[in-house]
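Lecture notes, unit on binding sites. The following record was shown on slide 14. It pairs a sequence with zinc ion.
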Amino acid sequence: MRFVITILLILAFNIANSQEKMKEYRKLTKEERTVIIDKGTERPFTGKYYNHKDKGVYKCKQCDAPLYRSNDKFDSHCGWPSFDQEIKGAVKRIPDRDGKRTEIVCNNCGGHLGHVFIGEGFTPKNTRHCVNSISLVFEEAKEHKFQKAVFASGCFWGTQYWFDKQDGVISTKVGYTGGHIKNPSYRMVCTGRTGHAEAIEVIYDPEKISYDDLVKIFFETHDQSQVNGQGPDIGHQYRSAIFYMNSDQKKIAERNIRILKSKGYGVATELNKFDIFYNAEEIHQSYYEKKGGTPYCHIYTKKF
Ligand SMILES: [Zn+2]
């Protein structure tokens, strides 16, 4: 008898639990169910997001789990949103019922997303997550939720390479800051006379990655002891600098500089109040992602 009661209790608990879980899921329309539950496919070029270029995060329509970042979206001209990388751990790959393709589902709720294809050569990652728009809901990178950080650590291609790899980083842009003329071009900044530093603007989700984490990544991916240069790149525009947005960021940066000095590291990093950031020309954005390869001047070294 006791055994039966135990089983009944376990069953009741499981039912309550799954009902609790269902409550967290969005109620799906008939069209959404056709794709997300019954693994259908929306018609190409009809979805909301195949041509969508805003900055932010694509979440699971059913359970709201973040799945893809706008930085990883590319134009494949196939009629569905295409991404060459998922947010780490967010998407599960399973063999499709057709015995050929690989299906992708939300790793949290199991909702159908689409298929993943390898080896098509669209981007250096050689991977295309072909996702139904209807399986996704987009959340724009708003600064009231997401926050901004700006760092300069030499050639901005290498700085961006490292920050793009971090979970919790929503988007990045390379550009120029800290100078005294408006709208500088790469060529102007290269003279070293505009006062600008090659820099990166990072939009991040503070619930996933802290400013302290970002500052540590900044210091661990360049030589902060080098004055007015980074590796072979010499000049004021390649200086090491943190451009803080507020007094909290300033304190966190100062604390990390103190830690580095206490460990015997030299620190030439400037601490400046952020003023204005000018995006660099498109050819410099996501440079290593477009060209492949790894930075010549930014190597990860554990320091903290
Ligand atoms: Zn989900």
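Take-home: The pocket of zinc ion is lined by residues 60, 62-63, 65, 106, 108-109, 111 (CB under 6 Å).
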